[in-house]
Specification:
This protein has about 280 residues and is of the alpha+beta class. Helix content is about 20%, strand content about 30%. The protein folds into three domains: about 60 residues, Structural Genomics Hypothetical 15.5 Kd Protein In mrcA-pckA Intergenic Region, Chain A (Roll); about 80 residues, Pseudouridine synthase; about 100 residues, 2-Layer Sandwich (Pseudouridine synthase). The protein contains six helices and 18 strands. Strands 7, 8, 9, 10, 11, 12, 15, 16, 17 and 18 form a ten-stranded mixed beta sheet that branches. Strand 9 and strand 10 form a beta hairpin. It starts with a strand and ends with a helix.
């Protein structure tokens, strides 16, 4: 199926089509190359080359061809927190993988998306672990992925074991744990990783913290909080106790991202703390 993106030339400065798309609209070079191969570039409803000049008042359209095979669909539904013509934001429950894998090919968020949009490939912008709940952004075309990945900002809530009374920052490199394909650890030869945390409230045994990431390493929040002695509740892999919650207590609570249809407009989408985390921190 083809989808069409439309851009209006509002500048009187002379430029080529490629210059307009890359510099003013943020279209990736990779996508432009693909559109050239598939004859997907049009100006005023006529085919155009990327090196051709365009002028004020022209209407540029990109005909995007999605040839990927859709994932198997399922009857399970997931609440949609926000949707536009170019992306949507799911409020993912815990115990649901985002992407299909060897043991999860028909029970993922990708399958839910395929049920609603069987003609589109599944393109998640932010990936959440299976047991992390909260907001997950899914793009409806390749251009939206490119723009959103560069600009999306996320805020998480986690419940950790122990009392944290002051805000702090963890700056510690993260690497794959030797002999494991899943587990990560802090190690000198790892990739640069920075996590900021702020305590919100405490019980005698736990702290609800707000977390902002500067980087997006695999398991970053879980690894960093365990590293400083405050593992996430329920996170058995990194030293957490599963007595009071059956999954690691982590929730993507807010995303801040561009509207895309309007380059000057930004959207903040929020998700309420789930019941299992509320009970753990005595908020219900």
């Amino acid at each position: 199926m083809n989808s069409i993106l439309t851009f209006y030339v509002k500048s009187e400065t002379p430029c080529t089509l490629e210059q307009f798309l890359r510099q003013e609209q943020g279209v990736s070079k990779r996508l432009i190359t693909k559109l050239k191969r598939t004859n997907g570039l049009f100006c005023n409803d006529k085919p155009i080359r990327s090196i051709d000049p365009i002028k004020f008042g022209d209407i540029v359209t990109l005909h995007l061809s999605d040839n990927s095979v859709a994932l198997p669909s399922i009857e399970t539904t997931v609440p949609i927190a926000f949707e536009t013509s170019q992306f949507l934001v799911y409020n993912k429950p815990p115990d649901m993988p985002v992407h299909p894998s060897r043991n999860h090919y028909t029970d993922t968020l990708g399958n839910v998306f395929s049920s609603s949009f069987p003609e589109l490939p599944f393109r998640s912008v932010n990936r959440l672990d299976k047991n992390t709940s909260g907001l997950c952004v899914v793009a409806k075309n390749a251009h939206a992925v490119h723009l959103l990945q560069k600009s999306i900002q996320k805020q998480y809530y986690a419940i950790v074991q122990g009392k944290i009374l002051k805000s702090g920052t963890v700056n510690a490199p993260i690497a794959r744990e030797q002999e494991s394909i899943i587990k990560r650890c802090v190690r000198d030869d790892g990739k640069y990783a920075v996590t900021h945390y702020t305590p919100i409230c405490n019980t005698e045994t736990h702290t609800l913290v707000k977390i902002k990431l500067e980087t997006g390493r695999t398991h970053q929040i879980r690894v960093h909080m365990s590293y400083i002695g405050y593992p996430l509740a329920g996170d058995e892999m990194y030293g957490g106790n599963c007595t009071h919650i059956s999954r690691h207590a982590l929730h993507c609570a807010r995303v801040f991202l561009p509207a895309l249809e309007n380059n000057t407009s930004w959207i903040t989408i929020s998700s309420e703390l789930p019941d299992d985390m509320k009970r753990l921190i005595n908020l219900v």
